[in-house]
Amino acid sequence: MKRPERILITGATGCAGRHLSRLALASGARVFGFARRDAFAPGVAGIVGSIADPDAVAACLAESRPDWIFHLAALVHGAGDHKPEELNRVNVDGTRHLLSAALRLAPAARILVAGSSGIYGRVENPAVPIDERAPLRPGSPYARSKAEQDRLSADFAEKHGLQLVRVRLFNQTGPGEPAGLVCASLARQVARIETGAAEPVLRVLHLGTSRDFCDVRDVVAGYWAALERGEPGRAYNLCSGRARTIGEIVRLLLARTLTPGIAVVETHPEPSADAILHQVGDSGLLRRHTGWTPRISLEQSLGDLLDEWREKTRTPS
Questions:
Q1: Which phi and psi (to 5°) does residue 139 adopt?
Q2: d(C-alpha 233, C-alpha 230), whole Å
Q3: Whose C-alpha in 97, 135, 218, 249 is 20 to 30 A from the C-alpha of 153?
């Protein structure tokens, strides 16, 4: 396949967006970023605007004229409290604005819509890895907005012939992870404890919860592979295929510190009745269709994340 000359990344200033920007720039393409704030990676032609504003989205498409579009812009679960109407305005309506504009202004573009494993909800047998055939049972306003985004994207691909793939991402971690998400929250606490800025107590909601983590650098490589070699109209899981408990995350982080006597306290040892306690995915379809495979270990991801928070703690903003 011919490599793209022009690439558009929505949500380009987010964690995955910045890593993906660097990957896209390394390909030699001209890279455009669309985001609400001007914090684009060096070399990106930044366009500031809201994905919820259809006029701004259309203007972005008209300016960038992309061959490839990576749609990452979203309100994210765990990074703030969002009302259902806000989630729908950004995650659902924003996707509709983008795909409608692409249909008019870049109908030949290949498009990736970044979704979430949250749309699967609670499964009958959590020990069995989830594949793309699993029913969608979203249990939260965020998950419902992403399920509707997934359905809307599939409709655009089927009814309008857009060259679109959907990627259902499980959990990601690594450098750049927002402070409100679990691994970054723990790494930040450890870094502050090491400097004496916080008491030697690591607070975590629930140690027994398990999730399927991928490094963000593997995630963006998976996005690239899915858009380049994936089958239009398909949905692909992006995950490691291995569940790791939050207790394991804590142990791996504490193994990297020389600060003695750090206590671990569960703030919510009894999770809510509707909580998803265990989730692991099956990325076999993505691997077979594209050859992608995760390469960065969780140990390296957490080490790099902790080093990043150590640097931030030493260098006040």
A1: -110, 0
A2: 9
A3: 218
Cα(287)–Cα(236) distance, integer angstroms: 9
The rounded distance, in Å, linking the Cα atoms of 264 and 274 is 25
Look-up of token digits 């996707």 = 95
CATH of 6-173+213-241+283-295, one of 3.40.50.720, 3.40.1060.10, 2.60.200.20, 3.30.420.10: 3.40.50.720
Measured in whole angstroms, how far is the alpha carbon of residue 76 from the centre of its chain?
Answer: 8
CATH of domain 182-209+243-280+299-314: 3.90.25.10
Q: Which residues of the chain have pLDDT under 70?
A: 77-80, 316-317
Q: Tokens 């691909």, residue?
A: 157
Q: Where in the chain is the domain with CATH 3.40.50.720?
A: 6-173+213-241+283-295
Total-model pTM: 0.95
Q: Following DSSP, what letter does each residue of 76-89 receive, concatenated?
A: -TTSS---HHHHII
The C-alpha atoms of residue 146 and residue 128 are separated, in whole angstroms, by 22
CB count within 10 Å of CB 197 equals 10
Q: Where in the chain is the domain with CATH 3.90.25.10?
A: 182-209+243-280+299-314
pLDDT value for 276: 85
N-term to C-term CA, the chain: 44
β-bridge partners, 212: 243
Q: What is the pLDDT of residue 93?
A: 98
Q: What is the structure's pLDDT at 2?
A: 78
pLDDT of residue 317: 54
pLDDT at 314: 85
CA distance 4 to 228: 9
